[in-house]
Write a structure and sequence with these properties.
single chain, alpha/beta, Rossmann fold, eight-stranded mixed β-sheet, 8 strands, globular, AB_hydrolase_1, Pimeloyl-ACP methyl ester carboxylesterase, hydrolase, AB_hydrolase_sf
């Protein structure tokens, strides 16, 4: 199990395939297992890396000092340590927030961003939003992880034919280190880089499930405030789109990455070709 020490923490990661690097960032309470249906499809064409955030998966768990900014710093340290040049960054939910933070902190690093069922801020502004955030924090602190896992599994995978997904989710979620999970949840609530979206200079694909927690219109609004960005909606999907609609998601992602790579190659070669034509 590959491990790497970054920022005084021991991280678990995976590294498969070859080619242009793609870094996959998982959601809250999860790990690289978020991407079990993407890694085989992506690694045929790309070098695919997954990093378990501090407090998650096989990475050290202290439950102290967590923030989205810290998670992004960890990712940047990983990118540097692994020698990744212009990686594509794909983030699901909390992973999308980390990707937003990374791209605003270091806009020169990513070749592209793919943001899945996420947003550039989680700042409750209206009374109903404050109520919902407070309720989620309260129940997360008082309920056992197994109870939280069962409730979330029914929201994510409600169909009878998704029973295997529900059982897998419950098993994985219940195994969370409680203090680290709570610290990560607190890191999300109140975080935001919405006022810095103009710093993002790479192409952005925003993927939304049609039945995600947050409405499609919310994604459409923040996409409209970014330069080279587009929104794609996947039907009959909930928050765990890479799991409940893997084929549709993989097709969107692979097409987007291919388009970005083709555009980068064209941009790189055009000046050289122009110079040759004058000889």
């Amino acid at each position: 199990m590959p491990q790497i020490r970054l920022n005084d923490c021991e991280f678990h990661y995976t590294d498969q395939g070859s080619g242009q690097p793609v870094l996959l960032l998982h959601g809250l309470g999860s790990s690289e297992q978020d991407w079990e249906y993407q890694i085989p499809a992506l690694s045929v064409h790309y070098r695919v890396l997954c990093l378990d955030m501090r407090g998650h998966g096989g990475t050290d768990k202290t439950g102290k000092g967590y923030s989205i900014a810290q998670f992004a710093r960890d990712c940047l340290a990983f990118i540097e340590a692994m020698g990744l040049e212009k990686p594509h960054i794909v983030g699901l939910s909390m992973g999308g927030m980390i990707a937003f933070q990374l791209a605003t902190d270091a806009p020169e690093v990513p070749a592209s961003l793919t943001i899945v069922n996420s947003a550039p801020e989680v700042i409750p502004r209206r009374p109903a939003e404050l109520w919902m955030a407070g309720k989620r924090l309260f129940f997360a602190h008082v309920l056992p992880m197994s109870t939280i896992a069962k409730g979330l599994s029914r929201l994510l995978f409600p169909k009878p034919e998704q029973v295997n997904h529900r059982q897998t989710f419950i098993q994985r979620w219940t195994a969370n280190h409680r203090r680290s999970y709570l610290a990560s949840l607190r890191a999300i609530v109140g975080w935001g880089v919405s006022n810095q979206l103009d710093r993002i200079s790479c192409p952005v694909l925003v993927v939304s499930a049609d039945q995600d927690y947050t409405p499609v219109d919310l994604k459409r609004e923040y996409v409209s405030r970014m330069g080279d960005a587009r929104l794609e909606v996947i039907a009959d999907s909930r928050h765990a789109t890479p799991v409940d609609q893997p084929d549709a998601f993989n097709t969107l992602l692979l097409n987007f990455l291919s388009q970005v790579d083709s555009s980068r190659v064209t941009t790189t070669t055009e000046p050289a070709q122009a110079g040759l034509s004058t000889l």
